[in-house]
Amino acid sequence: MAETSPIQSVEISTIAHATEDISKVENALRRLGITVPFTRRNLEGHHGNLIVKVDARLSHKDAGRFAESLIKLLSRTERLQIQRDLTLHSDDEGNLYIRLDKQRLFLGEVRLSEEDPVRVKIKFNRLLGESKRAMTVLLESE
Question: Does 19 map to a domain?
């Protein structure tokens, strides 16, 4: 899939809370195979506390390789869960959304989670065909 990947780009983002070491957050994200520099943006939390949004963007060939390796890090059960609930994990613009457990990522584990997540947005090139079909092919890759 990497050579003729229908994946146009991947965006990864998470929030580093004031109680978290920003370098440890970035190191945890690097375990996913992110090789591009991160962008940091300071934000203010609900109670006036500092939070930092950390994000990265991968394009073209890097995006396809990253998406394939990320999907392989998920358990078969989690891949099937995303595929079964594809309408909840995708939109009409050709984007697949995956939320990973940031705390487990610190331990080197890649698992799905809705709480304090690492957000991954995989954008498919709709000009190359049906995005939902390409998402299914990606999720079925071994």
Answer: yes
